[in-house]
């Protein structure tokens, strides 16, 4: 049994008290979000992990399952700005990015920033917008800056896009290009709440209230946006053992020749896997990642990076089925 | 029921003749019978067709609904037939008008559980319709009527159902020939093309129409034949032929005075004659004037002269009675016989020297049985996973490898704690903890029979152990120790955070207490 080395040479040991402080913050953020959003714990964890890893989330689920509420609650926990764009077929890139307008009084052009200048951006039903609007947003997600009339404007940190796709309606939509999908760090599936969760939601909504909406009033602002950036830096220092990194690589490489998968995940998939696993390790109170973290991150990170073959689709399989089988087959690293 | 007005020649007949009589009856009254049925059947078909248009998603149920209601519709043609056999001419309009009142009795039975199991329902319809029996009386009657004719009606009903099916398929194929693609070979392909969603509505409609036409042809035949089966059964049970004969013997009321004594005298003779010539011996022939057999001529001998005119009249009447084919005491039977039967018999005798194949037959029999058993065994083995768990006892799961780790007991050193100590002292901390972790998993799997999957990670193993503890498969102490070993292994292997030597010593001590006795017992 050989001594293992760390993959990330820059990773240094995180002081225990600093780690504990970070873990406490994350734990309290989860609890605060839970005050507004009942159930969907896995979704909350995955979105929180993506925020800590500095990525973007693609959310898929039928309307009315609390996507907006989740984003609003998350923004409120760190006192961040939140904007929501409802994507429509006539939405233009300038409507998202912003544009310059001519000021008649001063005889100058002034820049009017678009809704993308925020901390958390909820891009609702992104597949309804035309390709050029989608690609401009995807570019901003990658570059984290916007160029308007030749002038570059950096986005505030943290910046996170949560794009939703409605899986029920396909008419008049522009599905996101496969090649662009890996701009999203994870793809989260929101399912219907359990019976107990729905009951609890009912009690919360109908208890001495007017209207039928859940709101984020009870959610407290715990930290500032800068603290989130500090947490993201801390996550980047989480230790990754070589054996675990090997495991991640083996998993991603296995998707490329796995039966039933037509197109496997690229190297960005491996990087994303480790990034999310790091955030999950921090949420679990550890300063190192384990194969379990990789395994937990596997589905949300890889499900939108692979394409299943038509035969598998005809067999009623989806990406999650194939990835589950793959995870079961690839042995986790051991001594 | 006025038997004297019966338009049929009733006598006990074999079932085949009774069915043939039904067809003959239909030939006479076919127009009214068919019209009576169609007058109800067509509106029902139209309603079903409308339902297909209104509920296209449930169009496949339309033929089922009309099939379901059909027994009630069969009462109209039965009404026509039952009245016509007694000389009362009923038109189809009268039958349709009377139909709502004919529905009483047996309708619930015919629309519920009976509907599925009784193709011979036609035999029992007259019990409700003509005899008007209900409840227990009807049940007793059905039992008696069905004792002999039930089987025949049953098989006849099945045959009719097959006729309907064949006709329906024929019509479908006929339509399919015209609607299918130019080079299509299978005329049914058009209807069975499940991807052709656009035609589902017309497919369902076509299927309904084809079924409707097939039933429109067959149903009146079925009703008529079942009715004559019923009449035949009653004629046998109640000796209608005798009753009719007696009625014919009864003189008209105007000349009743002199003949009453004659009838009283004739009756014992007649009954004696009936006993001597049982109707059960009837063949499948009609009355034929053929020559009297010699033995009968010899038995009768010569008659003496009649004493008086009364006796002469009596003799003439008796002779007239005995002229009836049932009382002749003999019967002419015409059958078809092969002309060359003799030759064939000879030929078969000539071939008697053929080789004896009984041994080969026996061998083939054994071979076939063996093949059958083999096929059954293979099928049971091939689809064993679909067998209920109680049928095939669940095999105890013993993993030999978990995530690439060899966890077989023989792959571990005899004294695990000593080996861990040795590795630790040699500075191979990772190897020491890895061995301890591997040994822990091995003990869980091999000694406590905890089910652990092949690709299980550390947290998965902990979850399996927790489940085993919940099921009291392992103790709480054991679970705690497993968790502790896992945590130390994870901290060391992936976090480079090694435990203190003292902690290791304490851990090994607890490990030895927990796992070594079990191992020793296993070894002994």
UniProtKB/TrEMBL annotation, chain A:
Which N-terminal stretch is annotated as signal sequence?
none
Q: Which keywords does this chain's UniProt record carry? A: ATP-binding, Nucleotide-binding
Q: List the Gene3D superfamilies.
A: Magnesium chelatase subunit I, C-Terminal domain, P-loop containing nucleotide triphosphate hydrolases
Q: Any idea which GO molecular function terms this record carries? A: ATP binding; ATP hydrolysis activity
Say yes or no: keyword Nucleotide-binding present: yes
Span of domain AAA+ ATPase: 53-194
Q: Provide the family line.
A: Belongs to the MoxR family.
Instruction: Write the protein's name.
Output: MoxR-like ATPase
What organism is listed for this UniProt entry? Permianibacter aggregans
Automatic annotation (TrEMBL), chain B:
Q: At the top level of its lineage, which domain of life is listed?
A: Bacteria
Q: Please indicate if the UniProt record lists Transmembrane as a keyword.
A: yes
Write out the entry's keywords from A to Z. Answer: Membrane, Transmembrane, Transmembrane helix
Q: What is the lineage of its organism?
A: Bacteria, Pseudomonadati, Pseudomonadota, Gammaproteobacteria, Pseudomonadales
Instruction: Give the residue spans that cross the bilayer.
Output: 33-55, 152-179, 205-231, 255-276, 357-381
Q: What is this protein called?
A: DUF4129 domain-containing protein
